[in-house]
Design a protein that fits this description.
By secondary structure, the protein is of the alpha/beta class. The chain is built from ten helices and twelve strands. The chain is 30% helix and 25% strand. It starts with a strand and ends in a 16-residue tail after the last helix.
């Protein structure tokens, strides 16, 4: 089954060329199916790249997904064309009376800034508050995960001595989780960040449990005990060349960025990239959507009868 997108979205042509099943919303109106309503709060500066990466992951299941892209009202992005935003994005104020089966809050390149100093922090906290009552399951990515852990549970982030950059070996901590179903004993996840959360802080919070971690990259996937909030520090959605472009950009700026770990064949930037993460990335997003499909009330008004997410 396809993911539903607005007519004219640039990601449609890219993904169709890749044989990814996407469909315009008007075509789906004749089908007697209630699609999963999923919104993406896209905080990344190059929004077209991020939306394409996430749509690719969400489209790889038998479930029909009705997608809504969201941007911030309190901060105007400068790296995405305003016409693109006006055409394909809404603000939180425009959807806050709606309810969603799933919500994704992306990362953002603001991780070294104190949370309260981020220009759209107040608006983001309103969205996170809204998600507890009006969304069945919320997936937080990278800085979005750190921000949510800080806001909901008081777990702070800490700067590392050096950027964590590359593709790292991980293992499953909780093999009975709905989200790790089908995972291998060892698998890989890309990371690109300057900050981390501490395992001891997570273990001290009884509402959280660790699902996936790495001896090299630390905690990757966390969930609340009720499973309705998920937090990923890594980037299963990354394209094959995302770290390559980031490395080349940093070097062009004169930054002392190390070669992405375990990324190029023979660790040689002149050699080809070895993709080690996309299989488990697709499996994770399929598991998440299947969980949402199985557990969300058919009538989203019934969310009123459920406890707030994150308990």
């Amino acid at each position: 089954m396809p993911i539903l997108v607005q007519r004219g979205l640039p990601a449609y042509d890219i993904l169709t060329e890749e044989n990814v099943f996407v469909m315009y919303k008007d075509r789906a109106e004749s089908q007697d199916i209630r699609p999963l309503k999923v919104a993406i709060v896209n905080l990344m500066p190059l929004k077209e790249i991020t939306e394409t990466q996430l749509i690719r992951m969400l489209a790889n299941t038998p479930l029909q997904v009705d997608l809504q892209l969201l941007t911030t009202e309190s901060y105007t992005p400068t790296h995405t064309d305003q016409e693109h935003l006006n055409t394909f994005y809404l603000t939180f104020d425009e959807i806050k009376q709606q309810r969603f089966d799933g919500l994704i809050i992306t990362g953002a390149p603001v991780e070294t800034i104190p949370y309260e100093d981020v220009e759209y922090w107040k608006e983001l906290t309103e969205i996170m508050d809204y998600s507890k009552r009006n969304v069945f399951s919320t997936l937080h990515l990278c800085w979005g995960a750190q921000a949510a852990l800080y806001y909901h549970f008081g777990i702070d982030k800490y700067e590392m001595d050096r950027k964590l950059f590359g593709v790292f070996e991980h293992h499953t901590v909780d093999k009975r989780s709905d989200f790790t179903r089908g995972f291998d004993e060892v698998f890989y996840v890309p990371h690109s960040r300057y900050t981390q959360i501490r395992k001891a802080d997570v273990e001290a919070e009884p509402r959280l449990r660790t699902l996936v971690e790495s001896s090299e990259a630390g905690l990757h996937m966390l969930a609340t005990r009720d499973q309705r909030m998920l937090f990923l520090q890594g980037h299963w959605e990354y394209d094959w060349n995302t770290l390559k472009l980031e490395y080349e950009r940093d070097r062009a700026k004169g930054m002392d960025t190390q070669i992405p770990f375990n990324y190029y064949r023979n660790d040689d930037p002149e050699d080809y990239v070895v993709v080690r993460w996309s299989g488990h990335g697709n499996l994770f997003f399929a598991n998440w959507l299947n969980y949402v499909y199985q557990e969300t009330p058919y009538d989203l008004a019934e969310l009123d009868e459920l406890p707030e997410a994150g308990r």
